[in-house]
Structures are given as structure tokens and as C-alpha cells.
Amino acid sequence: MKRFEQQQLFEKLQGETGISNDEYYRAYKRVKRIKRFYVHLGVFCFVNAFLIINRIIDANSITALFHWQTYSTLFLWGIGLAAHGISVFGRDIFFGDDWEERKIKELMNKEKANEQNWK
Question: What is d(CA 73, CA 77) in angstroms, rounded to the nearest whole number?
Fold first, then answer.
């Protein structure tokens, strides 16, 4: 995004929501990090699909799907991609911010329902 467009977007959002310059900057940086992750994910999918198809064609057999070499890049790069995803989305990617609170309420409701069933 060009500097002028970025400034216009900030002014529009500031008028609508009253956000500060710091809040906008943090959100802007987060969006950029998320965008870079999705580009990384796209390149990962494209390159690994190409490598797997190329391996099958070179081997002239579908049995190439059963060799470690076919998936080594996918596996090792996948570890790096997972680390990138965790760095972008944080550890809350699986549980969320309020996961503990929701789980406690769920378990308490189940326990209460079980008590009522026994009465």
C-alpha cells in the first residue's frame, strides 16, 4: 500500500472508530505479517505440488509416492511454515483467548446437568 493510500485509510478509520496512530500502526503491521504468511503458504503449496509431480514423472511410476525423497522437502519446509504460522498467529491459534473460561463454563454446565439428572 502506498504511503498516501495508507494515510487516507488511517484518516478514514480514525474518523469512524477514533483509533490512535499507534493502534493503527500495530494493526497495519499485523496485517502485513498475516499477508506474508499467506504468501509463504501459497508458495509452499505450489512448490511442493510441483516437486511431487516432478518426482512422479521422473520416476516414471506412481511408486515414487512411497519414497521419503518425495516428501522430504514438504516435511522439512512444513516445520518452518508451522513455526512461521505460530509466530504470526501466536499460541492462541488452537485455543483462543478465552478458551479456558469457555471450557470451565462448559464443564460446570455438564456437571450441573448430571446433578439434575440424578435428582
Answer: 6
Report the alpha-carbon distance of residue 105 to residue 102 in Å, rounded. Answer: 5
DSSP 95-119: H-TTHHHHHHHHHHHHHHHHHHHH-
**Backbone torsions φ then ψ of 3, nearest 5 degrees:** -60, -40
Separation CA 44–CA 35 (nearest Å): 14
CA atoms within 13 A on the CB side of 10: 16
SS3 (DSSP) at 9: helix
Find the domain containing 90 and state its range.
3-118
pTM over 0.85: no
Q: Given this model, what pLDDT does residue 39 score? A: 97
How many folded domains does the chain comprise? 1
Q: What are phi and psi of 67, to 5 degrees?
A: -105, 145
